[in-house]
Amino acid sequence: MSTAVLDNSPSVPEVIPTFTATLIIRRFDPEVDDEPRWQDFDVEMRGTDRILDALHKIKWEQDGSLTFRRSCAHGVCGSDAMRINGRNRLACKTLIKDLDISKPIYVEAIKGLPLEKDLIVNMDPFFESFKAVQPFLIASSKPDKERLQSPVERARFDDTTKCILCAACTSSCPVFWTDGQYFGPAAIVNAHRFIFDSRDEGSEVRLDILNDQEGVWRCRTTFNCTEACPRGIQVTQAIAEVKAAVLRGKP
Amino acid sequence: MSATIETPRAPQPVRRQRRFNFEKWGWIYMRASGVVLVVLIFGHLFVNLFAGEGVKAIDFAFVGGKLSQPFWQIWDTLLLWLALIHGANGMRTIVNDYASNRLLRVIFKGALIASAVVLLVLGTLVIYTFDPCPAGSPANLLPSFCPAG
Lengths: 251, 149
Prior knowledge:
The structure holds 2 protein chains of 2 kinds.
Chain A: H1 2-8, E1 18-27, E2 37-46, H2 51-62, E3 81-84, E4 87-90, E5 105-108, E6 115-117, E7 120-121, H3 124-132, H4 151-156, H5 174-178, H6 185-195, H7 203-210, H8 224-228, H9 235-248
Parallel strand pairs in A: 1-5
Antiparallel strand pairs in A: 1-2, 3-4, 3-5, 6-7
Helix pairs in contact in A: 3-6, 6-7, 6-9
Chain B: H1 22-50, H2 60-67, H3 70-98, H4 102-129
C-alpha cells in the first residue's frame, strides 16, 4: 500500500534521514567471561527508531550472541526494562531522538538482580517479593453476578493498576540494590492496588506484611522509582499512602 | 569454564512478626522530631546570629546569660535530645542499608549508641549545671547580672 502511494507521487520521495549511533552495551557471557565487559556497536538508525530496534539490528546483523528479553515490543509486557544511559527504561519505549546521539548510548542490564547473560537478569527475587504481598483479590463472599464498585472507589487505586511488573522501579531503588530483604517499590505498588480496592478484604494482612523492618519503612523517598516507571505511576506517592495506611491500621 | 556472578543482594531470611515495630516508631520519630527541629534550629540561629547585635554578641557572657534562663535551658535541652537522636537514628538506617557484615553492623551501632548516650548525658549536665559567674573571673567577661567578683 505504501509503495503505491510512493509511485503516484511525482515529487522526490521523502527520505528519512539516518545517522550512525554508537551503543556501548555491557556484555556478560557466563561461559566465557569472568566479569562483564563493555562492547561498542555502530548502527545506522533513524530518529524515530527505538533502542529496541538498535538492539535488534545488532543481534540480527552484527552479533547474534547479544542476549536480551523482549516480547510485545510495545511497552505492555514489561520484558525489556534495562539501564539506558544510567536510567531504567523500557528499550521499546525509548526513542533514539530523545537521547543525545552525539555521545555513545550506554545500555546495561537492570541492577540489584543477579546477572545471567548480557541484558538478562534473574527475576526470581523480584517476583518472590511480589508474591509475598499476596497480589490477588481476597474476599469472603461470593456475589451473584459481580462485585459492584463506584467510579470513585475504582479511581482510588487506578494509578497502581497500571503496573506491568517490568522491575524498572525496583531495580532503580538504592535500598533494593543492597538490601536483600526489602520488598522493593513494585511489590508495594501491587499491594497498594489491593489495599485500596473497596472489594478486597485482605488489606489488614497486607498492611501487616508491609509493617515490617524490611517493609515500607525501608523506603527512603529518593523518588528513583517514580522517575523510572515507564507507565508513569506515582510510585513514591503510592508507597507513602501505604505508610499512612499502616499508621492508621486500615486503608 | 563458567563464571557465576554473585547475587548482589543479601540473602532473604525468614520474616518474624514482632509486636513492637521499632522501624515504624523510628520513622514516626524522624518525621515528628524533624518538624519540631525546624522551629528549634531556626529559632536558635535567629537569636544567636541575627537578633540584636548579631553574631558579634556571642561571647561567654552571651552564652552564660542564655543558659541561666529556664526558657533557653528547656529550648537547648529539646534541641540537644531531638537533634542527637534524630541524627543517630539516621546514621543507624545508613548502617542498616550499607553495612552488610554482621559484626561490623554490631560494632557501628554499638559505637553510635555509646556516643549518643555520652553526648546526651554530657550536654544535659552542662545545660543544667552551668555556672554563668565562675568565681575569680574578670567582670568584663561575665554576664551583667553576676555579682561583681
